[in-house]
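Regression test case RT-17, inverse folding.

Input:
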């Protein structure tokens, strides 16, 4: 018998998966184009073992796919909606930070 989890719990798992800066950066890089591990390493400048761990988390969660071309492993976003989610995150941050800047400016003007 398969038990389904509530959508809110699935969303929480998704956001937990996104809760690491290296994973976010990997997804940002992959939204531009599929990339081999060596290119990801060149941009991220972290140990290959650390990148491997983060890619494994992203693969298990279904956010990225991997294909092998000879000895090279190429990673890609599993769905274009991931790029939309990253853009939504940027929009939310811009809005929140913008509001904070407006409040700070108002405080400075009132003193």
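Golden output:
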């Amino acid at each position: 018998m398969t038990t389904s989890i509530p959508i809110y719990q699935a969303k929480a798992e998704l956001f937990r998966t996104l809760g690491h800066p290296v994973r976010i950066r990997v997804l940002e890089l992959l939204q531009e184009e599929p990339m081999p591990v060596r290119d990801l390493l060149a941009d991220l400048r972290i140990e290959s073992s650390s990148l491997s761990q983060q890619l494994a988390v992203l693969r298990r969660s279904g956010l990225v796919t991997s294909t092998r071309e000879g000895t090279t492993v190429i990673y890609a976003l599993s769905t274009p909606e991931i790029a939309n989610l990253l853009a939504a995150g940027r929009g939310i941050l811009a809005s929140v930070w913008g509001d904070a800047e407006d409040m700070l400016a108002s405080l400075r003007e009132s003193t």
